[in-house]
Amino acid sequence: MRRVFNRELRRLVNKPRYLILLTLGIVLTFVVFATMTKEGQPLKLPVAVVDMDHSYLSRRLCHELNATQGVSVKAVYDSHTEARKAMQRGDVFAYYEIEKGTYNRLLQFQSPKLVLYVNSAYMLAGTLSYKQMATMGMLAAGAVQREVYRKKGFRDEDIMGMIQPVEFDTRNIGNPWINYGNYLMTTLIPAVIAFVAMMHTSYAIVRERQERSVKTWLKKARGNTLIALLGKILPYTIHYSLLLLVANLIMFGPMHYPMVGSWPLMMLNSILVVFAAQCTSCFIAGCIPEAPLTMGVSALYSAMSFSLSGFSFPVESMPTFFSSFSWLYPIRHYFLNYSDIAIYGNGIEHCWPHYCALIAFGLLLLAGAVMLRWQLRREARFEGKEALC
Amino acid sequence: MLNHLSDIWLVLSTEVRRVFSDKMVLLIFFIAPLLYPLIFCYMYSNKNVENMPVAVVDESRCEESKHFVHKLDATHEITVAYRPSTLAEARQLLRDHNVRGIIYLPRDFASRLADRRTARVVVFADMSSFYYYKAILTGGNAVLIDEMHSIELQRFEASGLTRTEADIQVQPIEMQTVTAFNPTGGYGSFFLPALLLLVIHQTLFLGICILCGDANENSLTLKMIPPRLRQGRSVFRVIFGRSLCYILIYLPLCLLDLWLMPRIFHLPQLGNLRTLLGFLLPFLLAVIFFGLTVGNFFVRQKISPMLCFVFFSLVLFFLTGMVWPQSNMPPVWFALSHIFPSTPGVQGFVKITSMGATLAEVRSEYLLLWIQAGIYFVAASMSLSFIKKFRRS
């Protein structure tokens, strides 16, 4: 195996173009996500107010909205149509509509209506601006209630209990600051690295076919396709596992994403996800003899890995078929192990099934080796026949 | 003029033959845009997280807390799957992933309510996915507001107010929320329109890069073109001919993925067909010219686009501003995102299909696509002379 490993290293060093390009690609992806989500949650989201009332209430609402960290009033419109068009252009994510006479009706206890329009086509921006604006609206109503109670002679500490009889105290486990980068990067970066490791391994195998060097490659492994594949994928396993370890070190270190569990387990998880992704590519390369098709099928398969990891939309809420299908993706097991280790601090007694699943991807390597052997024999027979003809 | 048309026809027919004789391109041009939309639309057909299991620890065990828990169980977001007696047991259930959140009503819940002080309900949310957090908060908040109103109403009525007076006291301002677009707030109806367009962008771009890579690898780029079309303004005819081939293939695919698919899977469909077609023309041209530019300048091997560009789809998706809003992007990434036709493409398409925008509302995206198409057309025309020089050297 060492001879195959050394040969692959030499090939990599002689033609390092893709290794450098792909590594730079991974670094760029990391930098894009890290810098984009630096503020944790999008702050000062552009919102608007349709002020047809021009009153103390509408001005106060604008000031209070501007005083929050989450939203910023970008425009005050006179009509609903203007605001709707601004929303359709994507200039604002939400707006309050304050009808004419709202403040007067409020002073006369006629319970005026305050309408909040939200654009949910942008999920994150829509949800966050809704949350912020609804809270401010509630506070505005609360302020009115407070004034009434004060005039009736209640003390301030009693008033809070009356305005808000029940409150939620939310504890977010694993992401206490609701940091979007934390939620996004901890799974997406490993998914990208596993994806690239898989495609690069496919390419390494495919390259032998393209350069017609399969025989030399197998000679180094003394004809054993399993050894040949293992020796070939190992340099990539080391490279991409190291990249993932460094990425995790940065995320759970200087970037302060929470990690309460065991580091060695997380390291093992990182190495295994890269290895499992490579085993899948060995299987695909073993099954499909045509070089471009191998790459195409590998890409088609792994493009779904981001969704099926289940980190964004939970897999259990998808149709039942996908719950089972997602087990065929190493990143799904990585994600479940990550949430067990980093979020809950669970040990191996909890996560062993997913470690076993990642190791079981090794069977695909075996199957790939068998298929490759079968294919090579068939090709040899075919060549023999051609030579006879 | 007739000569020009016959030249374009020559290039077009050569390109069609190349597309249909290459298995990899067929996979990218036909299988991927047909398969992915179907798979993803089916994958996200349950638009929201429903009946998410939670554990409720009710240490108060009073009438009000029981009522609160019943109401929680009745929401479609959450289901009270376990009622452990201690918080420690509930935490264990969470660690074992049997539940995705805990709702804890402390012992003093009833006494605080009786004393007219604010009673506290503690919510523990599993943050491994934002959707667990969203489900528990949406369901919980609905019950919280309802419960608050009914408690306040009881108190006011007990203090001698009539029902109407009490109603006004409870809700001095009537809050009404209108979800203007994507009214179900579903993940699928937010994510899929953007994804459908990105699938069209990526498959078309990759397919063209693969064809360019194949031609460059086998030194065919110039051989495919008759010598009289290799220089001067006649190069434009080559670019037109090839583009026409891709447009003829992708127009039906676009109609299928961007018009029919949203109708089959009940995704937002507010846009009208004429607006969509008007928008798709500069989009397809920009993607084609962008693909030809990148393919001719940078792709030397047929398989390198699959290796180097596919994983970049993820970054492209985030650069569109659908997830992280464009207003909050660092200026460098905001500027970079405008290099790719996917950014104005996705933004414009989502505005048309999900928000019912007309071309006037997506004017900035529409103009940007034409500018991109213009710049990449010039670049693609220049790429042929670049290849000529490259071959000579």
Question: What do you see in this structure?
Answer:
The complex is a heterodimer of chains A (389) and B (393). Chain A has 389 residues and is of the alpha/beta class. Chain A has two domains: 2-37 and 179-388, no CATH class; 45-163, abc type-2 transporter like domain (abc type-2 transporter like fold), CATH 3.40.1710.10. In chain A, 68% of the residues lie in helices and 9% in strands. In chain A, helix 1 crosses helix 10, helix 3 packs across helix 6 and helix 11 runs parallel beside helix 17 (362-388). The mean pLDDT of chain A is 90. Chain B folds into two domains: 2-45 and 186-392, no CATH class; 52-170, abc type-2 transporter like fold (3-Layer(aba) Sandwich), CATH 3.40.1710. Chain B has a four-stranded mixed β-sheet, with helices on both faces. In chain B, helix 2 packs parallel to helix 9 (235-264). Chains A and B meet through helix 2, helix 4, strand 4, helix 6 and helix 7 of A and helix 2, strand 4, helix 6, helix 7 and strand 5 of B. Strand 5 of chain A pairs parallel with strand 4 of chain B, so a sheet runs across the interface.
